[in-house]
Write a structure and sequence with these properties.
With about 450 residues, the chain is α/β, with parallel strands linked by helices. It has 3 domains: about 60 residues; about 130 residues, Leucine Dehydrogenase, chain A, domain 1 (Rossmann fold, 3-Layer(aba) Sandwich); about 160 residues, NAD(P)-binding Rossmann-like Domain (Rossmann fold). Helices cover about 50% and strands about 15% of the residues. The strands form 2 sheets. The protein has a 7-stranded mixed β-sheet with strand order 9-8-7-6-10-11-12, with helices on both faces. A hairpin with a 5-residue loop joins strand 1 and strand 2. Helix 5 crosses helix 15, helix 6 crosses helix 7 and helix 16 packs across helix 17. The structure holds NADPH dihydro-nicotinamide-adenine-dinucleotide phosphate and (2Z)-2-iminopentanedioic acid (2IT).
């Protein structure tokens, strides 16, 4: 991947060369760093104190990265050994904050790209949270509840010593939802003998969780789309929406799209996608994916208006709005050409880095509104910060109040990205805007706090 990335401006090129030399086997991390450096070169040029303080050189190096053995015994009595990760990237704005991903594809490169992006995303939310990510190459698919619990307990047996409500606060991501968070939080309390609610977010609302955290990422992405459309005097009503994934982000993006009068017509998983011109039946999708933990093909089998396309992604389906909400690098240049050819008007990244760089460039040069994940999916972590506030104050806010706060935060994130894009001479470029606005906040804090 990094060989195919275009040259960078002189003010940031040498930092990228160091990253490439130091992390030669980490293509996703290189891709994420390249995008940020490309965007923020004008910020570096306009602020000589950032170069003097070595902001870039320090930002691309995690403060700490932890890798550990996770041994557990499966239902057949066999020993399994997975690898666990936590990359604590930046604490300049607050305790390390970011999700845990359990998926067989997880490796250091993926956790580092996610942790790096999290720094700027979290800064953009305006909440006092640093950036981190973690996870494991454990695959929860097909595992019994007991196996998932034993894995989570073993994972926490090591990770607990690095966590704490004022130190590092994980949450969910791919493969880590309310069930896994329950087991992880329970084991943390067992080991430490402290009821420290604020050391994990995404908890069940009955045991310290916050209203709207479950919905926040998908809802927030659609709120972000609304803000972008409002700049053009448009709204979501009547638009056809193409969503990928069928997990937490996808389900709540679909729900909010319906609430705003749009028609979501696709969903997917790693086996293929479904298209349903009558509109995705959300109750059916949730039953199959959340309750039965089944496959997306079962959706099409249960609904006559839908068909399943095996082994493909949903981007050849004509839509006005695309919300990639599965995983990284799921829209390539061919997918972008298909979406543009079918008249897509707005692409909103619910997932982290789902769009490859040449696909981003294609959208931007075709006048498609493009929202990078750092801005568009920031509602999840922003609501995590609201959960931390409620835990610290021993309060519970209502669903309506929490959703209003999320909507206001997404408006602020949009406006910060929009304004920074204008300030740096790239009006309407939300990639430059989000990266610059997030980076400025981090860089000013790093200058103020000295060389650490
Ligand atoms: P879930 O585990 O709930 O759902 C993930 C969905 O994506 C599933 O449908 C899964 O299908 C699919 N998927 C995962 N990996 C792949 C793959 N390699 N190829 C094709 N499909 C895949 O995760 P989330 O909804 O929480 O996360 C989705 C994305 O959103 C991720 O990029 C995550 O980093 C990002 N995100 C999540 C936030 C959150 O609060 N949860 C916050 C911000 C961003 P299958 O079951 O077949 O694997
Ligand atoms: O990518 C992300 O922002 C998340 N998975 C959510 C992180 C969090 O701490 O809520």
């Amino acid at each position: 991947m990094s060989e195919t990335l275009p040259p960078l401006p002189a003010s940031v090129a040498s930092v990228f060369e160091t990253v490439r030399a130091r992390n030669p086997h980490e293509p996703e991390f290189q891709q994420a760093v390249h995008e940020v450096l490309d965007s923020i070169a004008p910020v570096i040029e306009a602020n000589p104190e950032f170069a003097e303080a070595g902001i870039l050189e320090r930002t691309v190096e995690p403060e700490r990265q932890i890798m550990f053995r996770v041994p557990w015994v499966d239902d057949a009595g066999h020993l399994q050994v997975n690898r666990g990760y936590r990359v604590q990237f930046s604490s300049v704005l607050g305790p390390y904050k970011g999700g845990l991903r359990f998926h067989p594809s997880v490796n250091l490169s993926i956790i580092k790209f996610l942790g790096f992006e999290q720094i700027f995303k979290n800064a953009l939310t305006g909440q006092g949270i640093g950036g981190a990510k973690g996870g494991s190459d454990f695959d929860p698919h097909g595992r019994s509840r007991g196996e998932v619990m034993r894995f989570c307990q073993s994972f926490m047996n090591e990770l607990y010593r690095h966590l704490g409500e004022h130190t590092d606060v994980p949450a969910g991501d791919i493969g880590v939802g309310a069930r896994e968070i329950g087991f992880l939080f329970g084991q943390y309390r067992k080991i430490t003998n402290r009821h420290e609610s604020g050391m994990f977010t995404g908890k069940g609302v009955q045991w310290g969780g916050a209203e709207v955290r479950t919905e926040a990422t998908g809802y927030g992405a659609v709120f972000f789309a609304q803000e972008m459309l409002a700049v053009r005097g448009e709204d979501m009503s009547g638009l056809r929406v193409g969503v990928s994934g069928s997990g937490n982000v996808a389900i709540y993006a679909i729900e909010k799209a319906y609430q705003l009068g749009a028609l979501p017509v696709t969903a997917s998983d790693s086996s293929g996608y479904v298209v349903d011109d009558a509109g995705i039946d959300l109750d059916l999708l949730r039953r199959i994916k959340e309750v039965e933990r089944g496959r997306i093909a079962e959706y099409a089998a249960a609904r006559t208006s839908a068909r399943f396309v095996e082994g493909e992604r949903p981007w050849s389906v004509p839509v006005d709005v695309a919300v990639p909400s599965a995983t990284q690098n799921e829209i390539d240049a061919d997918d972008a050409a298909a979406l543009i050819g079918n008249g897509v008007r707005i692409v909103v990244e619910g997932a982290n880095m789902p769009t490859l760089p040449d696909a981003v460039a294609a959208f931007q040069s075709s006048d498609v509104l493009f929202a990078p994940g750092k801005a568009a999916n920031a509602g999840g972590v922003a609501t995590s910060a609201l959960e931390m506030s409620q835990n610290a104050a021993r309060q519970r806010w209502t669903f309506t109040d929490s959703e209003d706060k999320l909507r206001a935060i997404m408006r602020d994130v949009h406006d910060a990205a929009f304004a920074a894009a204008e300030r740096y001479g790239r009006p309407g470029d939300y990639v430059v805007g989000a990266n610059s606005a997030g980076f400025e906040r981090v860089a000013h804090a790093m200058v103020a706090q000295g060389i650490i």
